[in-house]
Specification:
The structure is a single chain. By secondary structure, the protein is an alpha+beta fold. It folds into two domains: 110 residues, 2-Layer Sandwich (Beta Polymerase, domain 2); 162 residues, Poly(a)-polymerase, middle domain, CATH 1.10.1410.10. The chain is 49% helix and 12% strand. It has 14 helices and ten strands. The two termini are 37 Å apart. The structure holds guanosine-5'-triphosphate and magnesium ion.
Amino acid sequence: PEHISHRRLPTRHRFYADLSQCLFDFVIELLPTGEEMAVKENVRKLLERLIRTIEPESRLLSFGSTANGFSLRNSDMDLCCLIDSEERLSATDLVTMLGDLLERETKFHVKPLPHARIPIVKLSLDPSPGLPLGIACDIGFENRLALENTRLLMCYAMIDPTRVRTLVLFLKVWSKRRKINSPYKGTLSSYGYVLLVIYFLVHVKNPPVLPNLQQMPPLRPITKEDTHLAGYNTWFFDDIELLRTRWHSENTESVAELLIDFFRYYARDFSYNTGVASIRAGLLKKSTKGWQNDLSSGRYNDSRERNRLCIEDPFELDFNVGRCVTKDGIYTIRGEFMRASRILANRPERAVVALAELCM
Ligand code: GTP
Ligand code: MG
């Protein structure tokens, strides 16, 4: 009846406004300080100088959260070494040599992993007065696809910084606090959660909050050489200044409404059994990608285990970013989406209490 919906409407809107404000305040507290970012940039420069004593033609670039605008305080640093000369050492040799050098010349704890699938050097620095929580850093080599997917996520963040960054950063904190952000233990990487958010904003929300940067018409003709990297098409519309003049979202929902809807969608509506979330192409089918996880799909328990949650990498189309999620992992993650959805659906009196409970 009329009188009920009238009474409920303002309360609901007040709740959304309160919750949105709480989300902004919550996230701002967790951003890295200017000092932290300066220290990290100095570390990158120092490491680059040292690497150049081995490979003079090299550059050390940051990727991942330090470079895409989704960084929280004390998040680790992902660095990628690019070598521009034709003749260069193998990644394995470089990792071994760099490991020795850093051990000799710096105070970092150094752990070279020259024989890993992707050879890296892991570094960490103990806490000190200027750096109360220390630093953790991975250096990889020639990972140009990671640099490009970092740039793609950064462009998405720039289109609607307030809504996109608030949602992503909140979900990163939430997934860490709820312990569902450990790919090594069968749950999902931060990268995977960011892709779920973008997929939701591009393909689920109607009208969409974000355009599909990989499907926009290019400004000028592009050739295969310009756009392909290691056999993968990495083209996307990256002129965000221009995009702002040409495209704007019809979607005016607040961050709170989007968050509530995000949880509801992944608790209830996403087709985990048959669907693949692709930010490039929308909802795809596991069967068309050959990513089934039903019993008939193969003899290996392992391969079924790998496709419980399917998230297509934006460029490496044959790569499932959710491959690390196990049967238990997906059960736990979905359970967490349901829990979050339930807490927010109750619209508790005070939004700040709801947030605290969400992340408890
Ligand atoms: P935090 O470290 O939790 O702050 O998050 P992050 O944004 O740095 O994400 P994460 O450490 O999960 O990934 C860092 C970067 O590595 C991503 O931005 C990607 O570029 C790359 N990356 C991570 N996981 C994958 C993966 O499974 N496939 C590919 N292709 N790249 C990945
Ligand atoms: Mg990282």
